[in-house]
Write a structure and sequence with these properties.
This protein is mostly helical and 275 residues long. Helix content is 88%, strand content 0%. Helix 3 runs parallel beside helix 6 and helix 9 packs antiparallel against helix 10. The chain is globular and about 70 Å long. The model has no long low-confidence stretch (mean pLDDT 80).
């Protein structure tokens, strides 16, 4: 009976901690929503008092959005940018996670690749754009390459750091129970490094969005970056903000989706944070 009583007490404490965590999360979401509405309200008031050549305001941007949407121009250019973004980021995530796992697990791979990884990561991506345009031309391949390089290193380095933080004791326990290298990766190393990998993916999303716009502004042929150049040249400030806000919302939604995926795949991390 004493054991059952202790189990019930422990279960009640866990449930209480989870309820508190959900309550805090709901309050924080309400605060975030209120903050966003306040910013939009103040922007509307302040923006109406500024010369429209220098700053637009939310209601004017909404009207401009419907205008570019009705013409079909925004959809066409957004589709081009999203295709490049999806291909470049997917390639960056696949290679970045693979190399990060390899470098974190094997010393030889770390010593071979580490100097090149840090050298390329320290190189400004903008400095590489002219040579990439020379190699691949003004089409999609050069833009995909820029997005790929922009998103590669955040996820690679975070994955590497995550694998390096895995306790050697856990690996030894796995070996003691007869786990082979494949089992060690899938059951111990990858789950332990998962929060780091997810953080790297969120960083890579932001870097890749910056990369696609930078590439398209250099080429100024198609895509949302080309729209930004066109609207800024025409001094259409309200239309200029349409792609900017779209990209910001896209980044927020993708980052939130990755965060929710992390909570599903690594729920213990959220429990540690709540406690």
């Amino acid at each position: 009976m004493a054991l059952n009583s202790l189990e019930q007490t422990a279960l009640a404490e866990i449930n209480l901690a989870e309820d508190r965590a959900f309550c805090v999360t709901d309050h924080l979401r309400a605060v975030g929503a209120g903050s966003a509405l306040t910013v939009v309200f103040l922007w509307e008031i302040f923006g109406r008092r500024v010369n429209p050549l220098f700053l637009s305001y939310p209601s004017a941007i909404a009207r401009a959005f419907w205008q570019v949407l009705a013409s079909g121009e925004f959809q066409r250019q957004a589709l081009v940018s999203l295709q490049v973004f999806a291909v470049g980021l997917s390639a960056a995530l696949i290679l970045g996670i693979a190399l990060g796992l390899l470098m974190g697990r094997y010393r030889l791979a770390e010593y071979l690749l580490d100097p090149y990884v840090y050298a390329f990561d320290a190189t400004p991506r903008v400095a590489l754009i002219p040579i990439l345009l020379l190699w691949f031309g003004l089409g999609m391949p050069s833009r995909i390459a820029i997005v790929f390089l922009s998103g590669l290193f955040p996820v690679l380095m975070n994955t590497f750091s995550g694998v390096r933080t895995v306790s050697a004791g856990l690996v030894e326990v796995g070996r003691a129970y007869g786990a082979n290298e494949k089992a060690l990766f899938s059951k111990i190393i990858l789950p332990a490094a998962l929060p780091f990998i997810m953080a790297g993916i969120r960083l890579a999303i932001g870097r890749a969005l910056i990369g696609i716009i930078t590439a398209e502004m250099f080429t100024a042929v198609t895509g949302l970056g080309a729209l930004l150049i066109r609207y800024s040249s025409a001094l259409a400030t309200d239309k200029f903000f349409v792609p900017v806000i779209f990209l910001a919302l896209l980044g927020v939604m993708l980052s939130s989706a990755v965060e929710k995926l992390q909570k599903r795949l690594a729920p213990w991390k959220e429990t540690e944070r709540a406690l």
